[in-house]
Amino acid sequence: MEITKAEFVVSNTDVKKCPKTHLPEFAFIGRSNVGKSSLINMLCGKKDLALTSSKPGKTQLINHFLINDAWYLVDLPGYGYAKVARSSREQWEEFISYYLLERKNLVCVFVLIDSRIPIQPVDAQFMKWLGENEIPFCILFTKTDKLTKNELNKNLNEYHTRMMGLWEEMPDNFISSAEKKTGRAEILGYVEENIRLYNQHLQK
Ligand code: GTP
Ligand code: MG
């Protein structure tokens, strides 16, 4: 799939105010600064569609982008950012969890993981929560341009081993770099296939 049209639609913190639609939706989530907004820009081929920053905590809202007039892509705030006060962290959890639990057209959540670091408790807990709530997800390893091939393979193997201690099988996963545009075709192919399955299901 090629992205020929990508437009910002709306930002908010309330799932009830998200676009009313039956179009399939894919959300990007992960720890602050992991590269969610950068990856969205890379996939869409637009530099400043989603706002990025070297400081964690840039994205604070649920941001909807309409892609090819056919599906939605959603940029979410990061979790696990220590400098955010506890009360606002709890609010975060609340509005994000409402969004994830109640958004009927949500097809898949991309959980972004920094390829340079081992599995973090907050990521493991979050994936466990997704599993318990039957919210489909896959893993996107980010910033792979910052590693050599050997380092990346070592980290991926370690991640796999750790995940196999927690899950019966490894979730679908992709490697990516917003910098080098790595993973673009694979990720968009995955989105395309899941849109096809979703639309097939809708027609039944
Ligand atoms: P929050 O919105 O704060 O949760 O962050 P985010 O996950 O949206 O991260 P963002 O895309 O804003 O990127 C954070 C920082 O990482 C920025 O300085 C980016 O330039 C950098 N970055 C993101 N992706 C990559 C990548 O693939 N390679 C490299 N080298 N840097 C990246
Ligand atoms: Mg962001």
Record keyword descriptors for this entry.
204 residues, Rossmann fold, 36% helix, binds guanosine-5'-triphosphate, binds magnesium ion
Q: How far apart, in Å, are the first and last alpha carbons?
A: 24 Å
Q: Which molecules are bound besides the chains?
A: guanosine-5'-triphosphate, magnesium ion
Mean pLDDT: 91
Question: Widest sheet: strand order?
Answer: 1-3-4-2-5-6-7
Shape: globular
What is the radius of gyration computed over CA atoms, rounded to a whole number of angstroms?
Answer: 16 Å
How is the CATH topology named?
Rossmann fold
Secondary-structure-derived class: alpha/beta
Count every beta strand, where a strand is a DSSP E run of 2 or more residues: 7
Multimeric status of the protein: single chain
Q: What would you give as the CATH superfamily?
A: P-loop containing nucleotide triphosphate hydrolases
- Helix count? 5
CATH hierarchy class name: Alpha Beta
The biggest beta sheet reads:
7 strands, mixed
Give an account of the 3D structure.
It is globular and about 45 Å long. The chain has a seven-stranded mixed beta sheet, sandwiched between helices. It contains five helices and seven strands, in the order ββαββαβαβαβα. α3 links the parallel β5 (106-114) and β6. The protein has a single domain, classed as 3-Layer(aba) Sandwich (Rossmann fold), CATH 3.40.50. The protein is an alpha/beta fold and 204 residues long. Helices cover 36% and strands 21% of the residues. The structure holds guanosine-5'-triphosphate and magnesium ion. Residues 32-38, 52-54, 56-59, 77-78, 142-143, 145-146, 177-179 line the site of guanosine-5'-triphosphate.
